[in-house]
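protien #1 (seq + structre)
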Amino acid sequence: MSAQNQNPEALGPPKGVGPMQRREMWLAYLMLAPTFAIILMIVAGPLLANFWISVKPVQLADLRPPTVLVNERVRGGPEAAGDSAELEYRLRNSSQEEEVRDVVLTDAIPAGFNVSVLPDVCALNGSALTCTIGTVEPGWRERLKIEGTVTDAFLAANRPERASKPVIAGDANNILTSFDFTLDNFRRIFSAEEFWSVLRITFYYTIFGTGGALVLGLFAAQLLNTVFKGRGIVRGLFLFPYVSPVIAVAFTWVVLFDPFSGTVNALLTKMGVVSDPINFFGQRAIEYSLFGIPMEFPLALTTVIAFEAWRYFPLSFLFILARMQSINTDMYEAAEMDGATPLQQFWYLSLPQLMGILSVLFLLRFIWTFNKFDDIFLLTGGNAGTRTLTVDVYEQGFALSNLGAGAAVAVVVFVVLVTFATLFIRFSPKEEGL
């Protein structure tokens, strides 16, 4: 019996990766390595930097490492050759908390300035000045005064001391680059009672803003899925909120809803709906009673959510309309012949076919709305119960100059969104047939 008959598998295709395929695979990886590296730096670089700052007690002033600042000037007001003058260096430690070690000042003595007295820490080699200062304490200030006389060359020059810029060398601890880490930023934000209120407001704003944009987009797509005269013009008008600059539409809403001169309040007052103007963007809540239970309606937050839904529904509208127009119309004709109402056709035929695109849109809009900052900041500045996590990042990092706490809040935003996206992709509904 031949070897081929003894081993039938030898007649089949080869299994595994051969040497040639392995070399081609590694060559492809090497060719794509620069692209992967660039993408990694663009995407992961800022993210890793944010994680790094979140575990450090970094203030806004810590972005510049501690150093000794120097200012050089000539004092004494010499007017003629041979007059006495003083070359003064004003030095100070830029940090109030960190010392600077091995501080050395180097400079060139201006031409025409004859040195007569040097400070003890300074030495002169020709015109080269070297001052070995050593370690300076936080908040340290000092003046080095070099006495001498001037010549005509010095007097003829325009600010001769500026011909050479003094150079300071020194070593100091840098909070940003050190390997000292702390969880104080996270302890501070989690222990603050307002953080949980801000987190709740963020979810409220995100869920209702996203849902409102999807519902309006679905309604608009259903409306424009039929053929009528002027449909193209209506589609263009529906895109206006999304393509307009956010600063323009936000300012328009603020003007329209202004409690003193706004059009909306004027109409409501004239129609007798309200007796006094309503501060839509400045009033935190309206108190009311439901079955004897006192409750509050978040007015400013609801108004901001309405703006969010109005501004971003065109994106949902475009995607949903495109999906609607790709659905086969035969089943609608069959359903209509069987006596199905338009509502039944939408619920049992259209909606199952749209679940895939609705899920994708909800995920994208949830992430974008959760990260939204400019809309709320332009409308309310985060006041009147509209402060979200992204506004809190700005407040902590820049208003309070606590970059570490701001980065910690940003890390919380990242973790929440990654968790939500993972769970949503795992359990989100799919279109029929997928």
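ok now protien #2
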Amino acid sequence: MLEQHIQHLLVAVEHELRNSSFGIDELNLIRKLQRPPWELIGKVEFHDTQKLYPVHFLLFHVLYSLRDSLAQTGENLYISPMRIGIERQDTVAGNGMPGKLDSLRSFYLDLSQYELPENVINQMMDNFWSGNQTTDPDLPETLQAAKVLGFDSIPDSFLTIKQAFRRAVMQAHPDRGGDTEAIQSLNEAFSLLKAHFTQTMEQT
């Protein structure tokens, strides 16, 4: 049922975006999907993050799936909190800047993130609606980095991160059958988590 709903949303979202030449923000896109002929989203409590999150997540799952699809035909789907729009691109499509994990894409395409604990949802939605565009890693990036190191959630201790990183690097070493790409991913994940814990310490 969920996969069928996603397919319907893909059709509706692409249609609405192609009819919005200057792009559209998330709230107005949700409202369009609520109205006929789509009626794919029910009533949304915009002030209740626990109820809003599944709507937000599923919509962004569809957006990142659509972006991958459009890239094959030379189009780019620009995704940000304030503007979502289809545009032509002259460069070869990719999944992020060279050498950088596209953590948001990984997060939203992972349907296991569809249901999260309330405290995690509240923190992530606060970051999203604040429009904070700093270079500090946001929650989806940090969660994805923790998964790269083998954790299901963000550990409480940076020491735990360092120990897991050392073990993972040893296992990924080319002499043990690993490769340089795996080590690069581990290094990127470790850097993100280090930035996360540094930011947390500065705020306490």
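The beta strands are 75-79, 84-88.
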